[in-house]
Amino acid sequence: MTILFSSMKALTELNLSKNKIKCKAVKAISKALIFPAEAALTILSLDYCDIAKEGLDALFGDLRTNKKIISLSIDGNILDDDTLKGHFLESFDMNKTLQKISIADCRIDDFKIHYVISALSVN
Questions:
Q1: Which of 5, 65, 103, 114 is most buried (most C-beta within 10 Å)?
Q2: Would you tell me how many other CB atoms lie within 10 Å of the CB of residue 66?
Q3: 85 Cβ partners below 8 Å, 6+ apart?
Q4: Among 46, 18, 17, 20, which residue's Cα sits nearest to residue 32?
Q5: CB 91 within 8 A of CB 121
Q6: How far apart are CA 34 and CA 55, in angstroms?
Q7: pLDDT over 60 (residue 3)
Q8: Which of 73, 87, 78 is nearest to 107 (CA)?
Q9: Collapsed DSSP state (helix, strand, coil) of residue 98
Q10: How far apart, in Å, are the Cα atoms of 101 and each of 36, 43, 57, 71?
């Protein structure tokens, strides 16, 4: 996956929404995001892909060092408390290039919204 992204110098948007790629594929995608020197990918959509904690932790963890992604959409995936207060918050604190994030239908309740607000306040 890393080789694929780095060789696609003109690809700016990747939409894998509504595919059941789950955690293993998301981990591969997130690792590819760490090495974006040649890659042009700026928009990543992973809506309704059955991504849970392990995959989202990897994605947000690796977004901390990615300076190319400006838009991320993960609608319909489950954001748990640990992911929100850990890697989600850290990725926003360290990645100042991310301009848009869509987290609709991610089971964010009154308690979890505080983590989202905290993350947005540091970006």
A1: 5
A2: 23
A3: 115
A4: 46
A5: no
A6: 15
A7: no
A8: 78
A9: coil
A10: 19, 10, 15, 6
Residue 67 pLDDT greater than 70, yes or no: yes
Q: What is the mean pLDDT of residues 43-48?
A: 96
- Tokens coding 47: 């809506």
Amino acid 95: pLDDT: 84
> For the segment 102-113, what is each residue's pLDDT rounded down to a tens digit?
999 999 998 889
5/38 Cα distance (integer angstroms): 8
d(CA 90, CA 3): 26
Higher pLDDT, 93 or 43: 43
Q: Quick one: pLDDT at residue 11?
A: 83
* DSSP code of residue 118: H
Q: What tokens does 19 get?
A: 């595919």
Residues 69 and 96 sit within 8 Å (Cβ to Cβ):
no
Per the listing, tokens 């696609």 go with 8
Q: Tokens 């694929």 appear where? A: 4
The string of DSSP codes covering 41-71 is: --EEE-TTS---HHHHHHHHHHHTT--S--E
Quick one: fold of 12-111?
Answer: 3.80.10
